[in-house]
Amino acid sequence: MSRNAMQRRAGSPSERRTVPDMRGVLREGFLGGLLAAALIAAAHLVHDVAIGEPLRTPAILGALLFDGLDAAHRAPVTGLRVLQFAIVHVLTWLTLGGLTAYLVSLVESFPKLWHLVFGVVFFAWASLLYLAGAFSVPGLPPLHLWLGVLLGAATLVVFLARRHPAILRRLDRVTITETTKRDLAMALDREYASRALYRELLRAIPEDATATRLARAAETRVDAMLRLLALLDIPAAEAPPPAEPVAAGAAAEVCRSAVRLEEEKIALYDHFLVSVDEPGVHALLLDLAAEAQDQLLPELRACLAGQRGRETAIEFSAG
Q: Which of 141, 171, 201 lies at the terminal end of a domain, its last residue?
């Protein structure tokens, strides 16, 4: 992978998106939800026209939502009730579409989560089916409402499946290879080492804003690695014991060591990225390498230059 390609992905792991493009995901989900809502409304209209009472279904459901069950039993067809239900109907399916699209994208990034996502989606649709049949309203048989919900669900599933044809193939690659596990273990070890160095730096220059930012970034990076390992059911090694406190005036040497370590990690992650196949692992390693290249190294080099300047000033004044 080229360095330019990596630099275009600048951003810290704390800001990395589990979903590649949240706006695109929501746009796709809203479009699918809107399509599902339109087809359900069309099916209800066909049913109502067939029994000689156009718009009866949305009018009754609107009365049920806004006036209660008793009013729904004798609700006339009014434009207000139809409009009220139409608004709720569209908003409901837009929400379901956005949520389902987000979950699909989550499975694309972390295939091992498919069973959790399936459970959430199943619960959502089962709840809708229950609500659709929970109220007995004359002239509005539960089967009519159930079929509408099933039509909407099928529409959304087919729409998203056509937009994400590779998702089933990715589910076949849930197993993490031993090589990837070994790479992740090595990456975690390097992140532990960085965190230890940044903690040393913060102890050496506790009031320094750069040292504080670096220490926080190191904590975030370790947390991101641990979360990923937990998602993939990979045991994480314990962090090594804290290092001995650094001697006074050793900040420049700590900065120098941290620069070398970040350069080593960038090269290491570049090497890993060539062979890593799992999308979530690839995304995190890419973000870690980009953050090290674009944010950590420049700050470390500036910190090192500042510490060298202080050392030179001290030596000059002592002489």
A: 171
Q: What is the pTM of this model?
A: 0.49
If asked whether residues 215 and 313 sit together in one domain, one would say yes
Choose between 297 and 129: higher pLDDT: 297
pLDDT by residue (tens digit) across 39-60?
999 998 998 898 888 888 888 8
Paired residues of 137 in beta bridges: 140
254, containing H or E segment: helix 251-275
Contact predicate 73/60, CB 8 Å: no
Q: Do 219 and 192 sit in the same domain of this protein?
A: yes
- Which residue intervals of 136-239 are DSSP H helices? 142-163, 167-171, 178-204, 209-231
Same domain, 9 and 155: yes
Full DSSP string of 19-74: SS-HHHHHHHHHHHHHHHHHHHHHHHHHHHHHTT-TTHHHHHHHHHHHH-HHHHHT
Total tally of structural domains belonging to the chain: 2
Q: 51 with 123, same domain?
A: yes
pLDDT at 221 (0 to 100)? 92
Q: Compute the CA torsion angle 110, 112, 113, 114 (nearest 10 deg).
A: 110
Q: Could you read off the pLDDT of 163-212 as tens digits, one per residue? A: 876 665 554 445 577 888 888 889 999 999 999 988 888 888 888 888 88
- What value does the mean pLDDT take over residues 76-83? 82
Domain holding 123, by residue range, is 3-171
Q: Report residue 106's pLDDT band, with 50, 70 and 90 as the boundaries.
A: confident
CB 137 within 8 A of CB 72: yes
Calpha distance 179→268 (Å, rounded)? 14
Nearest of 84, 47, 44 to residue 64 by alpha carbon: 84
For the chain, what percent of residues have pLDDT higher than 90? 15
Same domain, 98 and 140: yes
Could you tell me if 160 and 186 lie in one domain? no
Indicate if 31 and 157 belong to the same structural domain: yes
